[in-house]
Design brief:
By secondary structure, the chain is of the alpha/beta class. 41% of the residues lie in helices and 13% in strands. It has two domains: 155 residues, Rossmann fold; 147 residues, 3-Layer(aba) Sandwich (Rossmann fold), CATH 3.40.50.2000. The strands form two sheets. It has a seven-stranded parallel β-sheet, with helices on both faces. The N terminus is likely disordered.
Length: 403
């Protein structure tokens, strides 16, 4: 009997070893494949079809490299040994901001923890494959207490509004970091959000945010955008327009068709191929030219971005990619109403076609947009955005050790 048990156990261990070896071999193959894809993309030998096919491989490899097996998970909240600054991202593109901020706080002796509400996790999960930091399940607002020294969120309304309110009620300092282009006065949203007016302190990307808001506020830049601006511009691929379609959360829904059809017609007039980049929350557009690949990666194969109000134009400028503000629907939010020479503006297909023709290869987009960009995203050559943010939090909040 003992011999039978020994043989069964040996067989089980052998099978497990085979599975692990096969998984590791697959991981090694994927790692090599993604290296080839990334190198190819940098050398601009990858066309759009290759990118579409390989983006899933890239996602899988990065996931395997950071969390093997690949699926990221949200950890149950546990009481930290020290008070922590609670960092609350609301979308995948917020993660580079909070992970770098966590590092900067840690280097100053201030512990931090990234947490997410369950509804937000649906928007964070894909991005969590790219990071090694743990993401914790957000405790309910009534559980906030002695183990939290400060709360930092990229949205102080909506899903995290109750957390901000609960923290303030308990005397916990709250900070809201402006996440990107923002309709501060709800000119076009049709809502009454009052963004970035609920937290104690507002962390502004640049002078534009500072001037639009009031109260305790600090200009600290953007980790993601300053890194893009500082990186050498990549050689551009063959001409292709990326059309940003982001009529989401009930904002200007009725303008979607006019915007999209006129943008497509403008590309046809200019004789340039195009791809529709669909916001993750955008479900109304389906066509053969539609991609659900994150727009940051689609910009790798684009030479011009066509967009309405969005944060994406800031990324295009930072990456030295031409941007055309397409506004046939007459949105009024002021961010892109005064281009200051940084980009062209179109209100119909004919104007867009002409603007595309004027934004061919060889344009120095960063030089053209430098003045405009500096007002939107402040950069300090001596200190990173994460360091500036950590210094503000460190000097403003004083609850960093348990009493």
């Amino acid at each position: 009997m003992a011999l039978v048990l020994f043989l069964a156990l040996s067989l089980a261990v052998t099978l497990l070893a085979v599975i692990v070896v096969k998984q590791r071999a697959r991981y090694d193959w994927l790692s090599e494949r993604v290296r080839m894809v990334i190198d190819s993309s940098r050398e601009n030998t990858t066309n759009l079809k290759d990118l579409i096919q390989d983006v899933r491989v890239v996602d899988g490899v990065v996931a395997a490299a950071t969390r093997w097996p690949s699926t990221p998970t949200i950890r149950r909240w546990s009481e930290p040994t020290e008070r922590v600054v609670l960092l609350l991202p609301g979308a995948a593109y917020h993660l580079p901001e909070v992970t770098r901020l966590a590092d900067a706080l840690g280097s100053r002796g201030v512990p931090a923890r990234i947490a997410s509400g369950r509804p937000h996790w649906l928007r964070l999960e894909a991005g969590a494959r790219w990071i090694t930091e743990d993401v914790y399940d957000l405790p309910s607002p009534d559980q906030l207490g002695e183990d939290v020294s400060a709360v930092v969120t990229l949205k102080d309304w909506g899903g995290y509004g109750d957390v901000v309110a609960a923290a303030k009620a308990r005397g916990i300092p709250t900070f809201a970091k402006v996440e990107g282009a923002q309709d501060f006065n709800d000119v076009d949203t049709g809502q009454d959000r009052k963004p970035y007016t609920h937290a104690d302190h507002i962390l502004c990307q640049g002078q534009n945010d500072f001037d639009a808001l009031s109260g305790s506020r600090f200009i600290i830049g953007s980790s993601r955008l300053e890194r893009l601006w500082s990186a050498p511009p990549a050689p551009r691929p063959p001409a292709r327009a990326i059309i940003n379609v982001n009529f989401t959360y009930g904002v200007l829904d009725s303008a979607r068709e006019l915007y999209t059809e006129s943008a497509i017609e403008g590309c046809r007039i200019a004789g340039i191929p195009y791809t529709l980049a669909i916001h993750p929350a955008e479900y109304a557009i389906k066509s053969a030219h539609t991609s659900t690949i994150p727009i940051s990666r689609l910009l790798d194969v684009g030479t011009v971005l066509i967009s309405r109000f969005s944060t994406v134009p800031f990324e295009a400028m930072a990456r030295d990619i031409a941007f055309i503000y397409h506004n046939p629907h007459g949105e009024k939010v002021p961010t892109f109403q005064n281009p200051e020479g940084a980009f062209d503006v179109s209100t119909n297909a004919a104007e867009l076609g002409e603007a595309i023709a004027q934004n061919g290869p060889g344009k120095d987009v960063r030089k053209r947009s430098a003045t405009f960009f500096a007002k939107q995203v402040d950069m300090d050559p001596r200190r990173s955005s994460a360091e500036r943010t950590a210094d503000v939090i460190n000097s403003t909040a004083t609850r960093f050790s348990k009493g």
